[in-house]
């Protein structure tokens, strides 16, 4: 490819890095606000979503322009399609983090509600998964990306445990019914962030190896479940 294309791709990579950092701050603020009841961090996470949206549009427009102008092939095309997909997933992660922040602000209205212990563990695991997923992408490390994919199962288990905890609170503490419903929704939002991080990890493997691994781990889980039943 030409020098102009290479320079444009470098600028695109810088834009994606800034977007990753912005979404990272959004996730960190939302999670910190959740576990510490920090109103300011929650508001910051909720408001940052619009900035992420604007950046997502700019990155997508630049990707499409490069594809149209240069008709890239092989690794160059894989890179641009990966950026398009990761860019979209980052925007959706910011949406879910913003939702966590808004739900947290509502939950704070119940000043005596105590978060189920599963909340902090799930929040920590989702934050770690995001950091590892972005690191795998930046380093183009398929082995680390596979570790992120495998770790999604633990987040799913924690989401189920948090759902059970919310149900118990609804039954045993009716005064906290609304807060229990909100923490259930928080769990769903965090689980979606982890799913989107898994998408990013799978796209990293595709970028490096040209191998589409989407749904493969789900199929392996299904086989394991069938063997357990037999």
Specify the structural class. Answer: mainly alpha
Report the span from N to C terminus. Answer: 55 Å
Portion of residues in beta strands equals under 5%
Question: How many strand segments?
Answer: 0
Quaternary structure: single chain
Calculate Rg over CA atoms.
19 Å
Helix and strand run:
HHHHHHH
Mean pLDDT: 93
Low-confidence stretches: 222-230
CATH class: Mainly Alpha
Morphology call: elongated
Figure out the total of helices. 7
Helix content: over 70%
User: How is the main sheet built?
Assistant: none
Relevant CATH superfamily: Phosphate transport system protein phou homolog 2, domain 2
Query: Which CATH-level-2 architecture?
Result: Up-down Bundle
Number of domains: 1
CATH topology: Methane Monooxygenase Hydroxylase, Chain G, domain 1
List keywords for this structure.
230 residues, Methane Monooxygenase Hydroxylase, Chain G, domain 1, disordered C terminus, elongated, mainly alpha
What does this structure look like?
With 230 residues, the protein is mainly α. It has a single domain, classed as Phosphate transport system protein phou homolog 2, domain 2 (Methane Monooxygenase Hydroxylase, Chain G, domain 1, Up-down Bundle), CATH 1.20.58.220. Helix content is 87%, strand content 0%. The chain is built from 7 helices and no strands. Helix 4 (117-139) runs antiparallel to helix 5. The chain is elongated and about 65 Å long. It starts with a helix and ends with a helix.
């Amino acid at each position: 490819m030409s020098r102009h294309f290479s320079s444009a791709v470098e600028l695109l990579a810088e834009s994606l890095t800034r977007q990753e950092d912005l979404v990272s701050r959004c996730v960190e603020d939302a999670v910190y606000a959740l576990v510490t009841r920090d109103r300011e961090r929650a508001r910051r996470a909720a408001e940052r979503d619009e900035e992420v949206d604007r950046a997502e549009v700019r990155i997508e427009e630049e990707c499409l322009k490069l594809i149209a102008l240069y008709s890239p092939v092989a690794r160059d095309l894989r890179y641009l399609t990966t950026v398009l997909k990761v860019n979209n997933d980052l925007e959706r992660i910011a949406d879910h983090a913003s939702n966590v922040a808004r739900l947290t602000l509502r939950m704070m209205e119940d000043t005596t509600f105590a978060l189920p212990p599963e909340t902090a563990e799930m929040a920590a695991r989702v934050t770690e998964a995001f950091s590892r997923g972005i690191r795998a992408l930046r380093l183009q490390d398929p082995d680390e990306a596979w570790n992120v994919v495998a770790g999604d199962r633990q987040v799913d288990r924690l989401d189920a445990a948090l759902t059970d905890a919310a149900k118990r609170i609804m039954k045993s503490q009716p005064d906290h019914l609304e807060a229990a419903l909100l923490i259930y929704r928080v769990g769903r939002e965090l689980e979606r962030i982890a799913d989107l991080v898994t998408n990013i990890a799978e796209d990293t493997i595709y970028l490096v190896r040209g191998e589409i691994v989407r749904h493969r781990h789900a199929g392996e889980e299904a086989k394991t479940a069938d063997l357990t039943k037999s």
